[in-house]
């Protein structure tokens, strides 16, 4: 296959991004426009008959606090719902027509904003949720927005992500089309040159700030700092990726470099922020840092580091505060006045004009403050999406770091890439890639068949070595593409894991990590009876238990509800085996919070939850995909598939299996039919053989 020209490569990424946007919008419009609001409410995607109160907060945004008034609800507590901080919600009068899948105000055309008015709706970010309150933050309410008396909120799709990705990819494309000389970083990313490393002199070894780093972490750090354009840090489960990145960031700051730290989602960014904001004894001066992003999306203990919080404590912020108060007072009078107190006619018009002017002034002055704060920061932290926001518009960085890069789509990575001279990616391409709607991953996540093969080579080397080739889909992440393009010399692997027992380690290490992943001494002998209150017991102290249901006629069932997810599978007998074993564990004083149950199939997750949660609500039960990055002392995996044909569907996906078997710290329990599962792939066959040999095998 001939190498693709870089222009074609970027155009392909733009095309794939647009296809993903279309797929997401289609899915959400199918769900929202066709579904009556009552169904959305039952599904937790809408909440109705709410009353609201407004105030100003969060950098001048309008906050709307929603509650359930006694006139319409018997309890002030919300029923179970799907609104989480950071989600986008459409707020509208109760009973307004039109589906919820309409676009967000931001990033949409003027025409669309106009339409939004006709619909009497307003898009807002969920800021905080409690049992009986939901607070929404509205960026730019229209001037004459009046809070309806009875309110309904509906979850909506957010197109801004894709609009921003295309914007930055187009920016890179324009550089190429204008034949501008490419920076060394872009040349390397687009396959026009090989990456280079400035070797450190052996006489001047790196002076590590954190002395407890292990040898592979130190090598990775040294390599990342010496690489001139790009370096990959390969971090299998529990190998201290965050620890390693924090050292790299501190070293960069010590060398007076400015760093932009990103993650595909907020959590990895906040994990780094949490560690970085605590001074290290060997590097005690506080690092000037700022967290860019909607405060609603930042972990609550860290909001003081946000750009919003920092902007409101500068010298110039007092005046801005005064303007804010003035806006708040005027808006309150205009929005909340009713009956005789309602301001009308020309006076109302005049007051809104005043609010408009004040808002303009507020934005101008606040923009100045934001630039001042960002200029002072040595380290700026944001999601890949957040890095493309207005506040970072004119800033450049010496180093861009992207954590969990194997979970970020390549278009998302191009947003921060265009702001940096050098790129460090950290991740593990042998764990699950980003969740997508445009590829066959949706089918797979519902339990359908995957067209993908499941070999390690496939996950690691999805395209041709040495050549820039067009990505077949967005599952090919930048991390794995660069590995294929430039070869393993651009990566360093973290080899010591601090999570699980030696036995749990041995299969994934041997099969996926070339036997190089080893447990640290502090975890290699971990067992269940180390937990407080749990007595030593030969069976329970076995690190791996396998309930083999082969020959027991414990067959799977297709989900029967005919709804979304109908291709999913469940297995009632397996669920019973799991339930009984949970009881055994709890009877042995294993705290329910130390137990997690996972399954690749959503229908099985629901079944397990309905069976086990009434008795043990504290036990986490979830899909394998949603458990990536998580860990617990005991993890029970229900494999579900059991049929005469040896069909295993998307269970075959090697990266999903890897995530399944690397969550537990002390006790891995697998429930499955070895006969069916062995037929799925060579990897599954070997896993079943390994379990038969190495695990404590139990017949249910
Ligand atoms: N060199 C080290 N010595 C001792 N403990 C370490 C070392 N490096 C990391 N750890 C510990 O290992 C655990 C995992 O580290 P960290 O959170 O940095 O890993 P991670 O790779 O980011 O995790 P994940 O696999 O969840 O992404 C933490 O408890 C951390 O303190």
From TrEMBL:
EC number from the UniProt entry: 3.6.4.12
The keyword Cytoplasm appears for this protein: yes
Basic and acidic residues bias spans: 79-90, 108-119
One of the record's GO molecular function terms: RNA binding
Family per similarity comment: Belongs to the DNA2/NAM7 helicase family.
Gene Ontology CC: one annotated term: nucleus
SUPFAM superfamilies according to UniProt: P-loop containing nucleoside triphosphate hydrolases
InterPro entries listed in its UniProt record: AAA+_ATPase, Coronavir_polyprotein_1ab, DNA2/NAM7-like_C, DNA2/NAM7_AAA_11, Helicase_ATP-bd, P-loop_NTPase, SF1_C_Upf1, SMUBP-2_HCS1_1B
Region (Disordered): 73-120, 436-468
Domain AAA+ ATPase, first and last residues per copy: 227-675
ATP-binding keyword on record: yes
Species of origin: Rhodotorula toruloides (strain NP11)
Subcellular location: Cytoplasm; Nucleus
Record field: catalytic activity: ATP + H2O = ADP + phosphate + H(+)
Main location per the UniProt record: cytoplasm
SMART domains: AAA (SM00382), DEXDc (SM00487)
Coiled-coil ranges (or none): 313-340
Pfam families: AAA_11, AAA_12, SMUBP-2_HCS1_1B
Protein name (record): DNA helicase
Domain Helicase ATP-binding: 209-499
């Amino acid at each position: 296959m001939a190498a693709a020209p870089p222009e074609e490569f970027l155009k392909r990424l733009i095309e794939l991004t647009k296809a993903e946007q279309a797929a997401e919008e289609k899915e959400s419009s199918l769900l929202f426009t066709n579904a009556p609001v009552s169904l959305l409410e039952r599904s937790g995607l809408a909440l109705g008959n709410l009353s609201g109160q407004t105030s100003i907060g969060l950098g001048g945004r309008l906050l709307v606090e929603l509650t359930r008034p006694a006139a319409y609800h018997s309890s002030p507590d919300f029923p179970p719902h799907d609104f989480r901080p950071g989600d986008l919600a459409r707020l509208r009068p109760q009973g307004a027509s039109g589906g919820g899948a309409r676009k967000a105000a931001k990033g949409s055309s003027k025409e669309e904003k106009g339409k939004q008015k006709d619909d009497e709706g307003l898009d807002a970010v969920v800021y905080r949720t409690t049992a009986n309150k939901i607070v929404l933050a509205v960026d730019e309410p229209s001037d004459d927005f009046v809070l309806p008396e009875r309110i309904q909120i509906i979850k909506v799709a957010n197109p801004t992500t894709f609009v921003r990705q295309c914007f930055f990819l187009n920016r890179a494309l324009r550089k190429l089309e204008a034949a501008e000389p490419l920076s060394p970083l872009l040349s390397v990313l687009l396959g026009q040159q090989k990456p280079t490393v400035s070797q450190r002199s052996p006489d001047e070894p790196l002076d590590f700030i954190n002395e407890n780093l292990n040898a592979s972490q130190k090598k990775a750090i040294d390599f990342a700092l010496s690489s001139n354009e790009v370096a990959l840090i390969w971090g299998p489960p529990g190998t201290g990726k965050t620890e390693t990145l924090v050292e790299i960031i501190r070293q960069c700051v010590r060398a007076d470099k400015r760093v932009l730290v990103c993650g595909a989602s907020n959590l990895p960014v906040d994990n780094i922020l949490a560690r970085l904001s605590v001074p290290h004894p060997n590097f005690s001066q506080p690092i000037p840092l700022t967290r860019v992003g909607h405060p609603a999306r930042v972990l609550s203990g860290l909001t003081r580091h946000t750009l919003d919080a920092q902007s409101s404590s500068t010298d110039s912020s007092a005046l801005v505060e005064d303007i804010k108060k003035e806006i708040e007072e005027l808006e309150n009078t205009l929005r909340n006045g009713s009956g005789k107190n309602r301001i009308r006619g020309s006076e109302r018009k005049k007051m809104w004009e005043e609010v408009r002017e004040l808002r303009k002034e507020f934005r101008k002055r606040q923009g100045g403050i934001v630039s001042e704060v960002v200029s002072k920061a040595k380290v700026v932290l944001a999601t890949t999406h957040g890095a493309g926001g207005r506040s970072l518009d004119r800033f450049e960085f010496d180093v861009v770091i992207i954590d969990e890069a194997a979970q970020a789509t390549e278009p998302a990575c191009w947003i921060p890439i265009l702001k940096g001279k050098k790129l460090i990616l950290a991740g593990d391409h042998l764990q699950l890639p980003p969740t997508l709607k445009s590829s066959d991953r949706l089918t797979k996540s519902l339990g359908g068949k995957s067209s993908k093969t499941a070999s390690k080579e496939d996950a690691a080397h999805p395209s041709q070595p040495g050549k820039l080739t067009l990505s077949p889909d967005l599952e090919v992440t930048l991390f794995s593409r660069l590995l294929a393009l430039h070869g393993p010399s651009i990566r360093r692997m973290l080899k010591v894991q601090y999570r699980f027992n030696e036995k749990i380690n041995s299969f994934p290490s041997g099969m996926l990590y070339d036997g190089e992943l080893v447990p640290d001494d502090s975890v290699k002998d971990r067992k269940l009876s180390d937990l407080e209150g749990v007595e030593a017991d030969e069976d329970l102290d076995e690190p791996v238990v396998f309930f083999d249901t082969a020959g027991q006629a414990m067959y799977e069932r297709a989900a029967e509800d005919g709804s979304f997810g109908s291709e999913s599978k469940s297995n009632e007998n397996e669920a019973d085996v799991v339930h009984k074993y949970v009881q055994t564990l709890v009877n042995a004083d294993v705290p329910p919070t130390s137990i997690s149950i996972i399954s690749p199939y959503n229908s099985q997750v629901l079944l397990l939850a309905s069976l086990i949660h009434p008795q043990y609500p504290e036990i986490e039960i979830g899909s394998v995909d949603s458990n990536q990055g998580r860990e617990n002392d005991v993890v029970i995996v229900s494999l579900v598939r059991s049929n005469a044909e040896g069909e295993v569907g998307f269970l075959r996906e090697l990266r999903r299996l890897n995530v399944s078997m690397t969550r537990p710290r002390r006790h891995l329990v697998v429930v499955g039919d070895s006969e069916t599962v062995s037929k799925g792939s060579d990897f599954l066959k070997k896993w079943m053989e390994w379990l038969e040999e190495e695990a404590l095998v139990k017949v249910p």
